[in-house]
Design goal:
By secondary structure, the chain is mostly helical. It contains six helices and two strands, in the order βαααααβα. Helix 1 (22-28) packs parallel to helix 4 (73-112). The longest helix has 40 residues, at 73-112. The two termini are 14 Å apart.
Length: 194
């Protein structure tokens, strides 16, 4: 007697594509005090953090006011959810890039302190060392990340003011996580073979 086996059903786990949160932005992007310190240390312009924030708050409020007649409350919420998500995601990405730039600057500066390495020595007189260029690049990225953080924080505050709820990132289910057409076809073929 031939025994037929059926493919075992596995429990399906729905994975969620996690979005960036404002807390992630705050952890990865410099705050106002750190941005001012970086500006002073590197001779860069001091950003008007409060000005960036208030301008973006006004922008969101005016946008919502102009759309109020054409959108229902739910449509407004969905629209603003997407816009705020893009601001927060952009700031988080800039914060991650800034963190990598700082790590590279630290590594280059630490290598420069090692007396046994010739390749990390300063270049000809009048030219910056590689470590100095990496530090300056990290400082530029710090100011960019800070400016985007201010815009994202304004977006989140405005969302709460307009919608009346705290903003949370939208978490989309990942479709067919880990399953490709080839994998699905292989499972069907193996099931047919018994």
């Amino acid at each position: 007697m031939t025994k037929t086996t059926r493919p075992r059903q596995t429990a399906r786990v729905v994975q969620l594509r996690k979005g960036s949160t404002i807390e992630m932005v705050r952890l990865s992007c410099p705050d106002s005090n750190q941005a001012a310190l970086i500006s002073e240390s590197f001779g860069l312009p001091v950003l008007d953090s409060d000005g960036i924030r208030s301008l973006h708050e006004r922008f969101f409020n005016e946008t919502a006011d102009s759309l109020r007649e054409g959108l229902s409350d739910r449509a407004m919420q969905i629209h603003l959810q997407r816009i705020v998500g893009s601001y927060v995601g952009s700031a988080h990405g800039a914060g991650q890039f800034y963190s990598r730039a700082v790590s590279e600057a630290r590594d280059a500066t630490a290598k420069l302190a090692n007396d046994a390495r010739d390749e990390d020595r300063d270049g000809p007189v009048g030219f910056d060392s590689q470590a100095q260029r990496k530090r300056e690049f990290a400082a530029d990225m710090a100011l960019q990340a800070h400016a985007l953080r201010m815009a994202a924080e304004a977006a989140v505050v405005s969302y709460e003011h307009i919608v009346g709820e705290t903003w949370k990132p939208f978490e989309r289910p990942v479709e067919n996580a880990g399953e490709t057409v080839g994998r699905q076809a292989a499972e069907l073929q193996m099931a047919a073979l018994g």
